[in-house]
Amino acid sequence: MTKSIGIVETRGLAISILIADAMLKAADIRILRQETIDLALVTIAIEGDTTAIQEAIAIGTQIAIAADQWFASTTILRPDSTVNGLVIEIAKKPSA
């Protein structure tokens, strides 16, 4: 069974680390990648079962919004294998 994927984008590295910690503690997920762009926008991609992803993304989004650092978040439930492969390949690339 394909795992689901979740993405949270924030403004700032410090808040993204706090969010990643909270998501890992709240749900059985795995961080695929944390990507920093121009030291302003940080994207955290996670994977896990559907319920865990929904819970983790809800918590991560709530923390980011409360800190006024939220940019975007989404979940992709049981993605098509092509989309899943794309996210996995991006996760394997070294950080810029």
TrEMBL record:
PROSITE patterns for the chain: BMC_2 (PS51930)
Pfam families: BMC (PF00936)
Transmembrane intervals: none
Protein's cellular compartments: Bacterial microcompartment
Positions of the BMC domain: 4-88
SUPFAM superfamilies cross-referenced by the UniProt entry: CcmK-like
Major localization class: other
UniProt keyword terms in alphabetical order: Bacterial microcompartment
Assigned protein family: Belongs to the bacterial microcompartments protein family.
PANTHER family in alphabetical order: BACTERIAL MICROCOMPARTMENT SHELL PROTEIN PDUJ, PROPANEDIOL UTILIZATION PROTEIN PDUA
Protein name per Swiss-Prot or TrEMBL: BMC domain-containing protein
